[in-house]
Task: structure prediction
Amino acid sequence: MMRISLFYYTLIILMITSCIKPFDPGIKEDASNKFVVQGSVSSVEGWQYVYISRTSNISQAVFNPINDCQVEIIDGEGNTYTLNQFEEGVYRVWMSSTDLVSYRSYMVKVITSDGQILESDFDLLPEGPDQVGEVYYEIKNIPTNDPDYTIHGVQFYTNLLADPEDSRFYRWKLVETWEYHTEYPIEYYYDGIVHQVSPPDTSQKYCWKSLLVPEVYTLSTVNLTENGLNAIPLNFIYNTSDRLKIKYSLHIEQSALSEDAYNYWDKLRINSNQDGGLYTTQPLAVKGNIKNLTNPENEVLGFFQANAISTKRIFVDPVPDFELNILSTCQVNTLRFGLIEIPVTEYPAYLFSSGGNYALATMTNECVLCSASGGSNTKPDFWP
Result:
């Protein structure tokens, strides 16, 4: 299962529309070097994570982990759970189902290596539906400001049906995985000598890529008659992507939140969707629920929450009547003067196969090595 820390390392929202002006968030340089604390307890028995870092310069955003902290989760009954450092800036503790009680409050306390104390407010663990509602999709064409250009894609949706006593505040986190193939197997390569691979090597032909869907999805049913809603929009996949070419999977994590946690995430959603996205490694300066008790004038970014979660995974085969328009990353380059053109720095150079022999043409790595496109050729355990 994908490590949860991926979320906090890759928190970036991309809104693609026509004629967008460059976005200047107007964040001052002195906004960097603040503490960032993100973490949660969930209703599901398992590892509970807290991520501690410092903000970085927005123009050069990187993850700046803070190590060697003392981290505790404390519940409203006075029980304390000590977290151990798991990775750079990542702390975790295993909590059993008896530790995770609906309508009990939880907080986090951090003591940094230089003695600063950071504490969150208590956040209430609500109840929510045991299952994610139906997840489905439809082909959708979206008009743009250019009457000659229409965005083609597939829009995913989910339904929410909660009990009246369940939380009225929700967020969805999505992780997508898809299978893709290279265009060619490895048949000939050159490293000063031409090598033939027989039979052709297809071991590098099949890959899978997993990514967190960066958009923030929230919903409040406070103003609705029922605690539920149909056709809640999730992610949209453009027909220029290879995600739906072979097989696609979407993992949906539905979180029932407190009102405070919902307000935090909804502000992040609004900020990120307005002008181009959250930054890769840190949240925008939305007020969270964490304070620096040692230096109260120093703002702390982030939020510690308690959430009731349910999950679902769906698989999608190629969508009928959905025409893809994918630009290939595989390039075949003709050698005008023969193999002598290939520099040593490009060894091994993969040669194009034609008519049972190699041609005087090289192929980019993306033609034969699926991992060159960012995926892994190790099949995920959950893949059918």
The two ends are 15 Å apart (CA to CA).
